[in-house]
Each structure stands twice: as C-alpha cells, then as structure tokens.
Amino acid sequence: MQLVIRLSIEVISETLRTILTRVGFSNERAALCARLFAETSRDGVYSHGLNRFPRFIGAISDGLIDVNAEPSLVESFGALERWDGRSGPGNLNAYSSMRRAMELSAKHGIGCVALRNTNHWMRGGTYGWQAADAGFLGICWTNTLPNLPPWGGIRPTVGNNPFVISVPRSEGNVVLDMAMSQFSFGALESYRRRGEQLPVVGGFDVEGELTSDPAAIETSGRPLPIGYWKGSVLSLMLDMVAALLSDGCATYQIPSEVLKETKLSQVFIAIQASATNKERMLEEILAFMKSSSDDQAAVRYPGERTLKTRMTNLAEGIPVDEIMWESILKLDD
Amino acid sequence: MQLVIRLSIEVISETLRTILTRVGFSNERAALCARLFAETSRDGVYSHGLNRFPRFIGAISDGLIDVNAEPSLVESFGALERWDGRSGPGNLNAYSSMRRAMELSAKHGIGCVALRNTNHWMRGGTYGWQAADAGFLGICWTNTLPNLPPWGGIRPTVGNNPFVISVPRSEGNVVLDMAMSQFSFGALESYRRRGEQLPVVGGFDVEGELTSDPAAIETSGRPLPIGYWKGSVLSLMLDMVAALLSDGCATYQIPSEVLKETKLSQVFIAIQASATNKERMLEEILAFMKSSSDDQAAVRYPGERTLKTRMTNLAEGIPVDEIMWESILKLDD
C-alpha cells in the first residue's frame, strides 16, 4: 500500500537544498538545483522530480556528477556557442545553457548553445518553461544512452531522446516535452502495476509481435518508437546533431547501463518571440485545434494541464510517496 | 494498366523549363524551378516531383502563385530574419530562404529565416539536401492547411506539417523528411490501389475504431498522427512557431481546400557543421544503429536509399507515368 503525503514546495526545496549542501554543492547552486527538482514535482512530473532525487545523489556518490563543475565555453561562432559541461549536474548545466542561449538570442535574434559532457537533465520541459517564462521560443533536446531499438532492429541502439519545443503565452505557456518512445519504461511499469493494458500498441513481445501488454514489452526490451520508422530516425537525427554541434559523445559512446549514463550531448535554441504580438493568434490556434471534437476537453495542447496541476499542488501540497520521502530524509544524515 | 517510360533528367528539366517560361517565369527562375522538380523525381520522390507539376501549373492559372514574385526582407534581428514570400512559387521561395539561412549561419554560426505568405514547397527534403550539400546542418518545416485530426478529435484542425533535419556526410547526406501523419493520403491511395492493408494501424474508420484498412481511413478522413497524441501536438508546435516567427498565417488561417492551399508559413535553420571534423563519428553512429539487427539492411537511416535511387535513375532514366507525361506535354501548347 502506497501512502501519499502532501508537502509544501518550501519544505521540499529546503530539504533537498540541505542535502545538496551536505554533498558539497555551493549554497547558490544547491538552492537552484533543489528548486528545479521541487518545481518538477510541483508541475506533476513526479518521475523526474523528487522521485528521481535519490538516484541523482547516487550518481554523485558514484562520481558521475561533479557537483560544483560549471560549464566552460569551448568555442564561439557568434550566435552559436559550444560549451563543455565538465560532468556537472545535468539540470544546472542545462539551465545555464538555456539562459546563455537566451542571451545570444536577445543579441542575435536566435541563439544556440551546444553542450557536451553533461549529465541527465531530469525533466526536459524545465528548459522549455524557462525559455517561455522569459518570453522566448525554446527548442532543446538531449541524447541518451542506447535504450530504444530502432525500427527494423531488436537491440537498443538509439536513444529515447527527449525533444522540447515551447511557446510563451500569457495564459500559460505551450510546452511540448516528448521522448521518442511511445511509452517510457516508467510508463510501462505503471500500467503493469495497475494491471492495465496500454491504450495502443507500445512495443514487441519476445516473439516479435506488436503488443499492448506492458509486461511483455518490459520482458522483450523492445518498446516502439513513436510513429514506428519515423520516431526511430528522428531519434537518430537528434543524436547526430547534438553530438556534432557539441563535439561531444553520440549515443553509441554513452555507457549503456542506466546507472552509469553520463557524457550526454544537448542542444539549446532560443528565439526571440517578442517581435511579434500574436497573443490572439495563439488563442485562435488552440481554439481551432480543440474544435476538432464536440468535446473540446478531449483535445489537449501540451502544457494545458500543467498550470492546473501546479495550482493544485501549490494550494494543497505536492503529493509525495511517504516511503520515498523517508528515504530522502535519510540522505540528510 | 499503367505504362512507365524512362526519361533523362535533361529531357524532363528542359520540358518543364520551357513550360515555365511559357507561363511567365523569367529564364533563370524557370531553370531552377524545373531543376528542383526534376531532381525530386530523380531522387525517387515522384509524388512531389513530376507528378505534382500539373497541379503546380494549375495553381498558377488559379492565381495562387505569382510566378516572378521574389521574397522580400521584412525585418532583421541579426541571425534571424523574417521574409515575405509574396505568394511566389513555393519551391523557389524555400530554396532562396534556405540559401539565406546558410549565409546567416556562415556569419553567425546559426542562421534562421522565417518565411510567410509562401506556397507549397513540394518536397521538403529538397531544402535539407540543399543545406547538407553545402556543408550545413539544416532544419526546416512548413505548416499546411488543416488536414489532420488531432488526437482526441475527429475533424482536421492541425496540419500534416513536414519536418526536415539534415546532416552533411561525404558518403551521402543523412536527411530526415517526415510529415506528421503515419501515412499520407497519397500513401493510403497507393495501398488501396494495390489491394493491400497498411503494415500498421494508420487511422480510424467511420466507427472510430483503429484500422489498417486504407480505404476505411480515406472514407473517415481520419489518418493517425505519428505516435498518436505525440505527433498531434508536435504538429501544433511546428505551426505555432512558424506562424509566430514569420508573423504569417497559422494552419487555421490557411484555406482548407487542397487546391486552394496558400499563404503558408515556414522556418529554415542552417547551422555550421564545418567546425567539427566528425566523419568517423557519423559512420560509427550509423553502424551502431544498424547493429541493432543481425540483418543490417533491415535498419535504415534516412536518405540511405536516396543515392542508390538517384544513381539508378540517372543511369537508366527517371521512371515517368506515360499518361502523366503526355498531360505535361500538353501544357506546352
């Protein structure tokens, strides 16, 4: 039986901040890193917020993450810059990179930072919201370890690379944050635990047949890329561009064990959106999309539920698994 | 019975050039426009090459395309520029925009052209190949008329927006050119004519059930976005960004009849790739991807077959439907 408690974002942030300080983060970096984790849970992306924190601490213990390493500029091409993440914390490196891309965009209209040698950025949407909150269009992606079989293959040789696009909007940013598999392994596990079948086919079983059975896909290790052959090659392209632009590692060079994943390559693009004043157009785009169904709630845009979840979690507290929370408190010993 | 003849690229280009000159194109523009059509068929994308030419001429007759209108600069932000396509021919406008994005990239590292008020660009991959042939990473996309129901909806309120990413490679560029539906209406028609079912589910029937029957999807008008809910919102984001950056029309503002489609918005991004010398890494990325299967031919990268098709078509002639060719020759009256 899972017990869920509700905690304020302040309690969560402060607890994580204390632990991060204890494992060596400078004060300012601990505060930002803790805030990014807490805000991810606040927005309802629990898998990449608090629930991920123990693994993050583990990666520090294992020496994958150098807590106070800051990205350094390798080369500048004007509106495009190449940075080395120096094995720093993935979320701080990514946050810093999107901030730099926005600075470049403010100067040149568009700015791009390619970052190598970084660690898992946790929730990709964080950097989309970051750009949109500041009034920029944001586009970013990361490569990952090889964890997805490409279309036509069996063994995982492409990454489930998350791809983020964000548009600033006064009524709530529109933020797409999608990985390349139809269902993440975390999602497969959730469906299995609830005893449910997937709503659509999500991968192959060990016989090579398409299936909606989450357990069968976990066993085969063959989730489906979105759009079958299409997501498979989109994943390839994102990896190629990230590795080329950052002069960093491609998926095939990244350790293939989940707990050893490091040396990731990422791309952050920010584009000035303020030149246009198109709030009304954005509202009309969304209204038109929803007009596809008589039940407009059935057609959703990305980010639509985020603000509602955020408001609820700020008002009532962020839901936290009690056992997980106790394990986090034990990190503060 | 379909009769296929094989024609040299020179015969095709020259024939199209003559017709384009006759409908008012200046000599230089006629030659480039004809070449882009012919090269599309040369590369095996027949649907957007020669087979599309009669409809292109029809759009000129209907006044949608102003044959000698050239894009004009609306506003410059440095590495980002906004251009007005002035209802010129879509392929010439797009070619000119990617060329300008490359110029900006050569100066700033990254360059972006947002183009409004343009027409169908024919094969999106053309501009990916254009960038990669010149040694740039290319990213571009276009919006379209509303022709795809979003996930959760029934009526078509998002576009089947093609998205292109290209990477230069001496052994043959890697060029992704994918639209947002799992199968285009052209592909559905081809499967139906061959009496085949789709290899995977491709849309809904009129009862709202997922189906692999191409005719059922043509009847319902409900093809599936790639990745169900994922491609649906990716399409939305591409439309939003293209319309915002170009200050042009979004999908909901584009005439919804296929033969009246115009006033499209597009984005062209070019990024310097020459700073890195990573040929070996690219080969290793592709080899690793293919190692997913013991049958490496089963795992393909985008663009893999293009060069082979190109070589065959240059050596043996480009396959052309004889009746379609006769209808093109009649345009030259």
What would you say about this model in short?
2 copies of one chain form a homodimer. With 333 residues, chain A is α+β, with helices and mostly antiparallel strands. Helix content of chain A is 40%, strand content 17%.
Oligomer kind = homodimer
Number of domains of chain A: 3
Spatial strand order of the main sheet of chain A: 2-3-4-10-5-6-7
| CATH topology title of the largest domain in chain A | Ribosomal Protein S8, Chain: A, domain 1
* Percent of residues in helices of chain A: 40-55%
Give the tags.
Wheat Germ Agglutinin (Isolectin 2), domain 1; alpha+beta; Ribosomal Protein S8, Chain: A, domain 1; 3 domains; 333 residues; Hypothetical Oxidoreductase Yiak, Chain: A, domain 1; two-stranded antiparallel sheet
Describe this entry's structure for a reader.
- Two copies of one chain form a homodimer.
- In chain A, strands 2-3-4-10-5-6-7 form a seven-stranded mixed β-sheet, with helices on both faces.
- Chain A is globular and about 50 Å long.
- The two termini of chain A are 27 Å apart.
- Chain A is an alpha+beta fold.
- Chain A folds into three domains: 1-61 and 306-333, Orthogonal Bundle (Hypothetical Oxidoreductase Yiak, Chain: A, domain 1), CATH 1.10.1530.10; 69-180 and 226-275, 2-Layer Sandwich (Ribosomal Protein S8, Chain: A, domain 1); 182-224, Hypothetical oxidoreductase yiak, domain 3 (Wheat Germ Agglutinin (Isolectin 2), domain 1), CATH 3.30.60.50.
- The first copy, chain A, has helices spanning 9-22, 27-42, 53-61, 90-108, 125-133, 185-193, 214-220, 229-246, 279-290, 306-316, 322-331, and strands spanning 4-7, 72-76, 80-84, 110-118, 136-142, 163-167, 174-178, 203-204, 210-211, 264-272, 318-321.
- In chain A, a hairpin with a 3-residue loop joins strand 2 and strand 3 (80-84).
- Chains A and B meet through strand 3, helix 4, strand 4, strand 7 and helix 8 of A and strand 3, helix 4, strand 4, strand 7 and helix 8 of B.
